[in-house]
Amino acid sequence: MKIHIEWRALRLIMLLVWGIFALILTTQSDRVPLVHLMTSTIGSTDFGDSMGHAGLFGMLAVVAYFALSLRLPLHRSLLLAMSLALMIGTSTELFQLFVADRATSLSDMLANWLGVFVVGFAISFLSSIPRNRNSRG
Prior knowledge:
about 140 residues, mainly alpha
């Protein structure tokens, strides 16, 4: 029982940490050291920037799914996790209108969505695979 409670807490902490990380990276100026480090490392090209956005919000969908699946059926967890990641990805992109040194970008928002939908498809596909592959009948 104790391990189960700790696993729940870990999933919620992962969601909180990744959510804050995503918010910091997408709503702060490039003058913030963490944002500058990430954008100069991953986003130094348009392709790198798009992959960074897709990975960031895809991973947000993953950790949200794992946290929500503790309480909800798996299909509802996935839909809610994807909705949450899509809303945050869209909101942060629009919020950039009010941040110095940042600009709202349709390509960034589409990359956010791409990451969420790729993760959603992968989780849906993997959850449809039968669990017991060793039995042959």
